[in-house]
Design brief:
- There is one protein chain.
- The protein is an all-alpha fold.
- It has 3 domains: 141 residues, no CATH class; 45 residues, no CATH class; 130 residues, no CATH class.
- The chain is built from 18 helices and no strands.
- The chain is globular and about 60 Å long.
- It starts with a helix and ends in a 16-residue tail after the last helix.
Length: 368
């Protein structure tokens, strides 16, 4: 597990060194992101196929792709987009699996870099949360899902750049491409609805009532979903796992709401006055509200619903630095240290110690 702690130390060291050497804050943030995502890329791209629970299976399917024609897309249950990408690298370029994975990880971490650089008030904190929470761990094993999430990151950027009026066609194209790599990405269309949703005190109350109803009647609701829509399993609703994050999300949302009450601006006024921070606050708030509802249904553990939630939960790497940026300097330092300690402990206890997703021991691809 040394390489994972080494990655965290590297991100922190790069941030501190550049903070001392580079005075231009924008250039400093860009360098931190570039160097950090490059390190993440190398950890993922240079690993052996034994690192990550699903990777060895992905390699077998990749090597078997040479046995099938260009027109055959029925030889495995993977989505068409991923099958086509494999065919291009196998049948056209005759590339090794390692090179194929390198290409995929390059796209994933370039997308992450642009996503964090575009949104985050504290790129170091965003990178550390991404690494210590499930996102980076999933990059090591959930290849198709990680590609889909990367496309969704670009869709988030598109939403933000066209905040006066979402350009719907490019948004649809991005989500459909993500869907071609993982079917769960189709639910990302909800972001468009969430963005258009107007937040009011009455709807705020209805949200918390809905959260309570879902918690109380979860067995009945999940039984109906499992029997009539899709079987997501029967994870219990214990205090732990996703529930801790629901509580954390509610805590973050409390601080996201405060600036709105302070300034008293509605969506149109915020846009008219150019208050980009206020608009982003509302987007984070709406997305996190929806995420907490999914996590309540998902319960404790990792299942398909938890994966769906990750398309929306990704904004937590932006929302936490956004909240902390509003604190006074001393409080901001304490908050940053506290959040870092929490996520480090979370990473060690829930990922590294139990060896979740078989990412330990780490080996480079050239090791025997």
């Amino acid at each position: 597990m040394g390489i994972y702690f080494g990655l965290i130390v590297f991100i922190l060291a790069v941030s501190m060194i550049l903070n001392l050497l580079v005075r231009d804050k924008n250039y400093q943030k860009t360098l931190i992101v570039i160097l950090s995502v490059t390190a993440m890329f190398l950890v993922c791209a240079l690993k052996k196929d034994t690192v990550g629970r699903d990777i060895s299976g992905y390699e077998i399917i990749y090597n078997n792709t040479a046995l099938y024609s260009w027109s055959n897309f029925n030889y495995y249950y993977f989505e068409v987009g991923y099958l086509l990408l494999m065919k291009i690298f196998v049948l056209l370029f005759h590339s090794s699996f390692q090179l194929f994975m390198g290409f995929i990880y390059a796209f994933i971490f370039i997308s992450l870099g642009f996503f964090i650089r575009h949104f985050s008030k504290n790129v170091t904190m965003s990178l550390l949360i991404y690494t210590c929470y499930i996102f980076f761990t999933f990059n090591l094993t959930g290849v198709r899902y990680s590609i889909a999430l990367a496309f969704c990151m670009w869709a988030y950027i598109l939403v933000d750049k066209h905040r006066r009026k979402i350009t719907i066609i490019p948004f649809i194209i991005l989500v459909l491409i993500a869907f071609l790599f993982h079917r769960s990405a189709l639910l990302f269309f909800i972001v468009y609805i969430i963005y258009r949703f107007k937040w009011t005190p009455v709807r705020n109350l209805l949200y918390y009532l809905m959260l309570l109803v879902l918690a109380l009647f979860r067995p009945v609701i999940m039984n109906y979903i499992n029997n009539n829509i899709k079987d997501f399993g029967t994870f219990s609703l214990n205090f732990g796992g996703n529930i801790i994050f629901v509580i954390g999300i509610c805590f973050i949302m409390f601080f996201l709401i405060l600036p709105q009450k302070k300034y008293g601006f509605n969506d149109s006024q915020s846009l008219k006055l150019g208050l980009l921070d206020e608009q982003r606050y509302r987007v984070y708030l709406k997305v996190l509200c929806f995420t907490s509802l999914i996590l309540i249904l998902a319960g404790t553990g990792t299942n398909d619903l938890s994966r769906v939630a990750m398309y929306f939960l990704i904004v937590i790497i932006l929302a936490i630095p956004e909240v902390i940026s509003k604190f006074e300097l001393q409080s901001r330092i304490i908050a940053n240290i506290s959040i870092l300690m929490f996520f480090l402990a979370f990473y060690y206890i829930t990922v590294l110690l139990p060896n979740a997703y078989d990412i330990i021991p780490y080996q480079f691809f050239w090791q025997g």
